[in-house]
Design goal:
Mean pLDDT: 87
Order of helices and strands: EHEHEHEEEEEHH
Oligomer: single chain
Number of domains: 1
CATH architecture: 3-Layer(aba) Sandwich
Largest sheet: 6 strands, mixed
Length: 192
């Protein structure tokens, strides 16, 4: 799921300051991107609504579409998943000049990591838990650990409690929305 993260923070559903911690770190990471004021900001939410655990990305995308201004790609109605991720990346590259992509995805981890949210500078590789080799995507990445990993990734994703996914979606969605509201209104990142 992850590629050598830099400047990573880890928080948990059970940490009272998780939302503000994520939002502040996102703003910091966005500000570190070259020419961030002139580049479009895209929130790319990866996953499929067909597996409870994998629905985190599309749930976040749908939440943001209803509650934020910005370029949101990947929702429950139009998910970005293993079958269309490479084409979606090509479409983004054709449509937007040098975008800053924040990639959001679900992740399987260790049992004691369930409920963790990780945010870092750098891309992520979606689909590793289920054996997919997909392109690394994002200048900034956010993952939510929805379940513990096992030999059969699809089984764990399919049998993830919806409650943990909804709780992760709410924290991640609200934190991204908070960060988008703070960005200057003149920034390309919010004028879409």
């Amino acid at each position: 799921m992850k590629t050598q993260p830099a400047e990573k923070i880890v928080t948990s559903l059970y940490e009272s300051s998780n939302r503000s911690k994520i939002s502040r770190h996102l703003l910091y990471l966005i500000s570190r991107q070259n020419f961030c004021e002139q580049r479009p900001l895209i929130i790319l939410c990866i996953g499929s609504e067909r597996y409870t655990g994998d629905a985190l990305g599309p749930l976040v995308g749908s939440y943001l579409l209803e509650n934020s201004a910005g370029i949101i790609i990947g929702t429950l109605d139009e998910p970005v998943h293993a079958g269309n991720l490479a084409d979606t990346i090509k479409k983004i590259e054709r449509q937007y000049a040098n975008p800053i992509i924040i990639a959001v995805d679900a992740c399987l981890g260790n049992k004691d990591e369930i409920g963790n949210i990780e945010v870092w500078q750098g891309g992520l590789e979606a689909g590793i838990a289920v054996g997919h080799k997909l392109p690394c995507v994002g200048q900034i990445s956010i993952i939510g650990v929805v379940n513990s990993g096992g030999q059969f990734g699809y089984f764990e994703l399919q049998n993830t409690p919806l409650s943990i996914v909804i709780k992760l979606m709410k924290v991640i969605g609200e934190a991204i929305s908070d960060a988008l509201k703070v960005l200057p209104k003149t920034t390309n990142a919010v004028i879409y």
